[in-house]
Amino acid sequence: MIDQIVQGVLLGGYYALVACGLSFMYGVMRIINLAHGSLAILAAFLVWYITEQLAVSPFIALLIVVPIMAALGWILQRTVLDRSLRSGPLTPLLSTFGIAIIIDNGLFERFGADTRSLAPNIGDLSYKSWTLPGGVTVGQLGLLTLGVAVVLIVGLQLFLKYAPLGRAIRATAEDPDTAELMGINSRSVYAAAAAIALGTVAIAGAFLGMRATFDPYSGGAQLIFAFEAVVIGGTGSLWGTLLGAIALGVAQNLGAQVNPKGFLIAGHLLFFCVLAVRVFAAGGFSLNWLKALWRSQPA
Amino acid sequence: MTDAVWVRRWSSVSIITIVGLAGIIAILAFGPLFLGSYWTSRLTTLFIYIILAVMWNALAGYAGLVSVGQQAFFGLGAYVVIRLSDAGMPVYPAIALAPVIIAVLALVLSPLALRLRGGEFAIGMWVFAELAHLLVNLDSLIQGETGRSLIALSAFAPDVRRANNYWFALGAMTIFLALVFVLLRSRMGASVQAIRDNEEAAASVGVRVMATKRTIFVLAAAGCAAAGALTLSTLITFQPKTFFSVQWTAYMIFMTLVGGLGTFEGPIIGAIVFFIVESLFGSSGVWYLIALGASALVFSLWIPRGIWGTITARSGIQLMPIGYRLLFRK
Amino acid sequence: MLTATGATKRFGNFIAVDRVDFAVSRNEAVGIVGPNGAGKTTLLNLLAGTYPLSAGSVSLDGLDVSRTDAAARCRMGIGRSHQVPRPFVDMTVFENVFVAASSGGSCTRAEGYKASIASLDLCGMLSNANRTAATLGLLDRKRLELARALATNPKVLLLDEIGAGLTDAEASELVTIILQLRATGITIVWIEHILHVLLQVIDRLVCMDSGVVIAQGKPEEALAHPAVIEAYLGSGVA
Amino acid sequence: MNVLSVEALDARHGLLKAVRGVSFAVSAGEILALVGANGAGKTTLLRTIAGAHKASSGKVIFDGTDISNVPANKRTRAGIALVPEGRRLFGEMTVEENLLVAGRTGRKGPWNYATVLDAFPMLQPLAQRKGNDLSGGQQQATAIGRALMTNPRLLLIDEVSLGLSPVAVNAVYESLQTVIASGATIVLVEQDLSRVLRISTRIVCLLEGRVVLEGRTSDVTKEQITEAYFGLRRPATLEVEA
Asked: What is the value of ipTM here, to two decimals?
């Protein structure tokens, strides 16, 4: 039981990583990016491809993939998202869903249906673990993932708080018209925010590849995990996302104890329970808490 | 003065359209007698596509609800048929009953689902579809991803089965088109279009927004369930992975966007376009799917009215008698 | 007949309407004026049920409707127009009005036709009945907004700046229509900036500033009230 | 030398004509007051000059350059700053952050975080307070300070004293004196006529989107302004459209 909880917490570290970019993008642009999961898989494939081709460590490959994904984010915002933001509330959903289909099938076309993993490329990191008193084992990779998630979230918060660009992003997210009047080019800020979001997606993709397997059609599942983590943890801070991600991971691991197939079911059920409580307790439901989430600072 | 004014709903164009449609359906009803086995089964597929497109359009185009999880109802519709058949019910009555059962399920789900907004609703429905998929896999009858065949169908000779499927699909398509048509023509139809144009303004003139959306949500669920049940009758084997695939929703989105979101005729045209594209390029594999995604992207950004919406905007023609015209005595 | 007691609306830390008591009696026409940000439109939204109250209550004909939503209040007899007209753009003018008649007016199809035609006629929109609402100009949109509110068969009609942005000639046409409405016994609450238009119609004027009512009474008296002049023109002018 | 000139400017909200053929000019060092009842088009006019609202026709010329098609953020960087109606502070950000975010891409000039705090002493103890948690007067001071951080040559202020207590209004105007002393040109919208008469050098009065009165403050009487303002009697300059 304790072991399952510990493993769930570690798994939550990955979910926090993948949820980070989704909530960031929603917070700034009010876009729920349905291609989010597919982009994470795209990043995983890029890391895998570079690792294989150049025979380097995935961590080195990640150094190349983060800027590539960030550039992709910039282009995506400038070409598609800017336009879809201006054409009604349904358009961003439809256009990002279209992008997801293109990415998924494009990956299938290029890389085929095989499942891949980066685990063979990171040596003993993929299985080495420490054993705590009481027989609980803590995987080094899991701990690293959780650590990276925490560092990323703290880093993003510090960036938003203290960096000039971070402040411009917050200002634009709150009121793009007024930000323009302060000399801020809101289109560029949006593009920068999309670049940052996809940079985090690249990291999430790499860690997905190291801790598990992936194939071209794994994107939908990643989107769902990310969304569930954000919804479950919606307590009003980026730490909420981390907590939500951990709750999701723990619920899944406990669910797996009940039934071998209970892993995913437990996560989905937790998601719906949290959603139902929120909808019926508040008498209404909106994503305002999400808006506040990434913007608020640690006390 | 007002005695000299009255309301007309039918125009000569719309009468011709409806008579024409009825005529086409009447001719199609004899399809299996002259079409041959290939076209009988191909047209069955087209009828199923039309149901899917019309239902997704009702949801997104009229109620403003973009769902990425309609495959939930599609898959559950098929699953219910397997279950009913296993319980001893004859196959075709089971196919007819499945949409009704799923409609009840959707009604139960609606209080939660309809309070979600925009992307929340879209992904929330997707999670629901995933959950439904996982729970169906737990059923020992289905044997996980292995799935189960609708064995009772083997009692029919292939030709008979093909013809039955055809008639059932044609019948279901006719019923759902008629339901949408009647809904749009009713006073609720005016409300539905008002919600589509401006939800808040609709509420301010007394439209029951929630109740109207619920009706559409339930109807769309029933339609997708019927399509799922019918697809099962053509494929025979129920494989959860196939039936709960998000691909079905991708098809629905493509058909609706290409044909024209928020019009009656658009999704029908979109389904026919999709059917033709699939017939021509379906065998070319993933490039075909990439092209579908790209078209969804292009239509949503640059041609948001779709084919039919663009045509009506240019020409002002109105085929279906769902509107109202005021006539004045000279 | 329509009463707000202690009506309050907060947006975050901002109090848009602060404990306002407001009442209008049957067949009365009340004008509301006040500077931008005075809370006039918010008060109208509280009366119509568009926003939930933060505190206080609203009642119609003695019935508490504080927790009734906008659509239901409309069906009970509160009709409204919006400051910026919100037509259903892809529907015809007649269909716009017919939705209102059949939903808000809760009537049969035949009654709905009749009510729609009558309100279009009254607002001078009958000849435009078959046009798509998207093609209408501003005056016609305002007329449609009014006709739609009328078709819901309201006991009380809440009007939000239907005169704004119109030329003189257009505004006086609107006044003629509203005077005709008054003659049919409809109660009117009208927010308007253009005073000379408003004064042709109303019995009583309510002046608001910073979320509270600062003066009310006969129009000339209310306008002469020092607090009103100060709110409009600033201290030292009076 | 005109800092700003506006030529036959039209602006719409959808189909509503909010600004109709407005022309006027502001020369360096002037304080121009825009007055008029609400709905007269003052806010739209200011926003159109700042680039936050699109003009449907006409020209905005700043420093001799036609900037009619320049986006708002570039106009700000060229030296036009707007204090918008309702202050529009970034409410989740502190006073310090509100100021710094505006100074990020600004021009060089006398204003920076330190000099703004000097000009608005009331803000000094509030630097770490969130915009949402300020009083109206504190918000207005922050909003003006934020605009100054861009080192504008032309400062547009919408509704200087709207919703402020008399004490707060005094404090804000006192600080404006510092701004005027720094040589900026100001266009302001103000409901308080007596203030306008004291502070401005010129007055433009709008009624229903048109200029109905324009002149040097010293040449205009209160009666003329009041009449033009309310539109109770129709000013002779206002032609009636067919």
From this structure: 0.82
